[in-house]
Amino acid sequence: MRGRFITLEGIEGVGKTTQVATVRATLEALGRRFHGTREPGGTPLAEDIRALVLAPRIEPVPGSAELLLMFAARAVHVANLIEPTLAAGQDVVCDRFTDATYAYQGGGRGVPAAAVAALEAITHGGLQPDLTLLLDAPPALALQRANRRSAADRFEAETLAFFERVRAAYLARAVAEPQRFVVVDAAQPLAAVSAAVARAVQTAVVTWTHGPVP
Ligand code: TMP
C-alpha cells in the first residue's frame, strides 16, 4: 500500500523542529515506517539549492527567482525521494512543502498565486500532502523565540510585516483546504502543542487505516 505524505508548516519560531520530532515519535509508536525530510532540500542537489537560496547576500533576490529555486529543489526532491518513498509504502514526513511557497513567495514576496499554481502543476501535479500540520502563532511572539537562535538566513532577517503576510497566507490555505490541514495553536505551552500534534497524527492514521470515523 502507498505511504502517506505528512507536511509541517509555520513561520520561524513556532517550534516546527520540535514538532517534527513529535510526528516521527507518534508514527513510530503506531508502527508505521516513514522517512523524514525537509524543503528546500532533502536530496544532495536540492540541499545545494537550499544553501544558494537561504544564504544572506547583498545582491537583491527577486521573488520570482526564489520561486523558481524553490520549485527546482522541489522537482528533484519529489522525483528522487518523495515519490519513490511513497510508492515503496513508506510515509514521508516533510518539514515544509508547497504551502510554504504560497505563504513566503506568494504572501510574503507578492508573487501571484497563479504563478505558484502553474509551477506546482508542473512539479507535482497530482501529489498533495495527506495531512498538513500548520503551527500557528503571532509573528511578534514567534520571532522573539526565533531570535534567540543564531545566524539569520535571508528569511529570518525579514520584517514583522513580512511574517504577518506569510502567516495570513498560511491561514487562508488552511481555510481553503480543511480536509488536509490541522491548525495547531503554537502559542500554547509546549506540552499542549505536542499533544495536539500527536492527536492530529493519530486521528489521521486511524482514518487512513479504517476510513472516516462516523
Ligand atoms: P526552515 O528554516 O524551516 O528549514 O526553512 C527554510 C526557509 O525557507 C524558511 O524561512 C522558509 C523558506 N521557504 C520558502 O520561502 N519557500 C518554500 O517553498 C520553502 C519550502 C521554504
Strand order of the biggest β-sheet: 2-3-1-4-5
Order of helices and strands: EHEHHEHHEHHEH
Instruction: List segments where confidence is low: pLDDT < 50 over at least 5 consecutive residues.
Output: none
Assigned CATH architecture: 3-Layer(aba) Sandwich
Q: What integer value in Å does the Rg equal?
A: 17 Å
Please provide a brief summary of the model.
With 214 residues, the chain is α/β, with parallel strands linked by helices. It contains eight helices and five strands.
What's the topology here?
Elements: E1 5-9, H1 16-29, E2 34-38, H2 44-54, H3 63-87, E3 91-95, H4 98-108, H5 113-124, E4 131-136, H6 139-146, H7 160-176, E5 181-185, H8 190-210
Explain what the structure shows.
The structure is a single chain. This protein has helices at 16-29, 44-54, 63-87, 98-108, 113-124, 139-146, 160-176, 190-210; strands spanning 5-9, 34-38, 91-95, 131-136, 181-185. A five-stranded parallel beta sheet has the order 2-3-1-4-5, with helices on both faces. Helix 2 (44-54) runs antiparallel to helix 3. The chain is 56% helix and 12% strand. It is α/β, with parallel strands linked by helices. The protein is globular. The protein has one domain (5-210): P-loop containing nucleotide triphosphate hydrolases (Rossmann fold), CATH 3.40.50.300. It is built from eight helices and five strands. The mean pLDDT is 95. The longest helix is centred in the middle third of the chain and has 25 residues, at 63-87. The structure holds thymidine-5'-phosphate. Residues 12, 16, 38-40, 54, 70, 95-96, 100-101, 104-105, 155 line the site of thymidine-5'-phosphate (TMP).
